[in-house]
Amino acid sequence: MSDAERTVSPTTTEDTPSVPGWVEPALDSILATLPFAADKLAPFRASYLDCLAGCGRAGDLDMEHDACRKGLLRALTDSVGLAPDAARTLEQQLEKLELDISAQV
Question: Region (Disordered) spans which residues (predicted)?
Fold first, then answer.
């Protein structure tokens, strides 16, 4: 097979949207405070991280973070029955995380 016949496949050095490396462990610590198993939260965690990774780097970053956070809170409330008090606490923790992300951009 010649080089021209080989299919192109992405490498680990491809530019893809991602969050800074410290965000995932920080989010895991936040989610560990919730009364749900990690495997139950995994799809919500992944969706939130994907949303954060897709946020731009411009002045509307806070608005984009807000949308990600609200989406996560709504999904957790609707799908696993996150209590209102827990939702408020989680929202505050996520806001802090997002501020830390914004500060490093």
Answer: 1-21
Phi/psi of residue 34, nearest 5 degrees: -80, 155
Length of the chain: 105
Query: Whole-number mean pLDDT of the chain?
Result: 85
Say how many domains are in the chain: 1
The DSSP code sequence of 72-103 is: HHHHHHHHH---HHHHHHHHHHHHHHHHHHHH
Q: Which domain holds residue 60?
A: 22-103
Q: Nearest 5°: CA angle at 12, between 96 and 41?
A: 40
pLDDT score for 79: 96
Measured distance CA(68)–CA(47) in Å, rounded: 9
Structural domain includes residue 80? yes
CA nearest to 94, candidates 55, 57, 49: 49
pLDDT digits (tens, 9 = 90+) for 9-56: 444 444 566 788 999 999 999 999 999 999 999 999 999 999 999 887
